[in-house]
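Appendix B: complex inputs.
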Amino acid sequence: MDLDFKKSDGLITAVIQDHQSGRVLMVGYMNEDAFRLTVERGYAIFWSRSRQRLWLKGESSGHKLIVKSIQTDCDQDAVLVRVEAIGPGVCHEGYESCFFRTLEAGQWSVTEARTYNPKEVYDK
Amino acid sequence: MDLDFKKSDGLITAVIQDHQSGRVLMVGYMNEDAFRLTVERGYAIFWSRSRQRLWLKGESSGHKLIVKSIQTDCDQDAVLVRVEAIGPGVCHEGYESCFFRTLEAGQWSVTEARTYNPKEVYDK
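Resulting structure:
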């Protein structure tokens, strides 16, 4: 059984979940190469849609994602990757998770504190 | 701050997570109408890419998803919807979660038992 890369222009959706807390940390996209490399190397590797290239998560920040398990869904066009996240946060904006905004009374509010200063990590 | 529906042909990715157990139950896609209706009605409503129409999850099975919270990610092209799932399972193949297959030694294996018989639900 193979993954279905045809439905979304060669990409599958990858949900990244902390293997211990269960927190959803980010959503990324993988082409066939990114998925194969993720399995082979044991670190999450995505296809960056904005930069149009393979992207080892953490390549600049050091905040890599160590793969603990990979599951796929019924129609095989998404994967759930449980990880151990290295470092204080997955989000490039300085948060533990990219999902740091919550819908409250029709407005998106930042509902948690930063876990690190992104300027100290990315502007070296 | 609005969601970014432009990046993927008018769709955002919606990760559905059980609000109590933290289990990721499914991944769906929402257009602007589906997202607005999800917020207004309090049940998860998707854009079905295969049927090209709005899809109230549970409209035929009764297995609706009651929205408990909605979060968005840093680039606003994905939402994390925490839900209370009505019924024995979210997956139309009879499982609690659509992510019932795990990669083991290079093969996808079904790694859990069905929670209901889909024929009894969908072939009425």
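The first helix of chain B runs from residue 32 to 41.
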